């Protein structure tokens, strides 16, 4: 890997992943499709508005897919797309580093 | 890996890595010891104050080591500690994801 010059694709990836809560949300979704309250239940101190905003961003970036099930009452689930699932090595390497050094 | 509950060590790691500029600074330092201006030279749009603040944080977190060479004029270099070097798999997995998806 070339560390002598910054890579725009790396910068763009860091920009996505470096947003507050995003690293936590993606970790939760690696556990499979989740409803809003289930995501929120794993992440302390995150407001509804913040989670709503982040999920919209992640959806527009093609990382998360939102599915509406036309039941009564309506059920909405969030899951990772292929692009989102491909973040698993990132999340796992952060987890490994955290276990060693935090 | 257990995705059903959040891990405090993972949260702490994300808290360190998710700060703006940190992911870029660590990538630069994986290229070896650097002077302030060399780090800044690879990262567009980051102010001197922001880099100074981040380097102090990373030093206090034991991720970066600052060495003063008593020359004239004095020379200051920043390098990754073992804790910092151990972030290489994280940086490389972000790079790989960025190359595939950004």
UniProtKB/TrEMBL annotation, chains A, B:
<dbReference type="InterPro" id="IPR002577">
    <property type="entry name" value="HTH_HxlR"/>
</dbReference>
<dbReference type="InterPro" id="IPR036388">
    <property type="entry name" value="WH-like_DNA-bd_sf"/>
</dbReference>
<dbReference type="InterPro" id="IPR036390">
    <property type="entry name" value="WH_DNA-bd_sf"/>
</dbReference>
<dbReference type="Pfam" id="PF01638">
    <property type="entry name" value="HxlR"/>
</dbReference>
<dbReference type="GO" id="GO:0003677">
    <property type="term" value="F:DNA binding"/>
</dbReference>
<keyword id="KW-0805">Transcription regulation</keyword>
<protein>
    <submittedName>
        <fullName>Transcriptional regulator</fullName>
    </submittedName>
</protein>
<feature type="domain" description="HTH hxlR-type">
    <location>
        <begin position="7"/>
        <end position="102"/>
    </location>
</feature>
<keyword id="KW-0238">DNA-binding</keyword>
<keyword id="KW-0804">Transcription</keyword>
């Amino acid at each position: 890997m070339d560390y002598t010059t910054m890579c725009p694709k790396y910068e763009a990836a860091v920009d996505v992943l470096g947003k507050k809560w995003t690293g936590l949300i993606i970790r939760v979704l690696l556990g499979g499709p989740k409803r809003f309250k289930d995501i929120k239940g794993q992440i302390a101190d995150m407001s509804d508005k913040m989670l709503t905003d982040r999920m919209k961003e992640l959806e527009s970036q093609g990382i998360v897919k939102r599915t509406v099930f036309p039941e009564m009452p309506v059920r909405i689930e969030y899951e990772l797309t292929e692009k989102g699932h491909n973040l698993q090595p990132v999340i796992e390497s952060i987890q490994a580093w955290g276990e060693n050094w935090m």
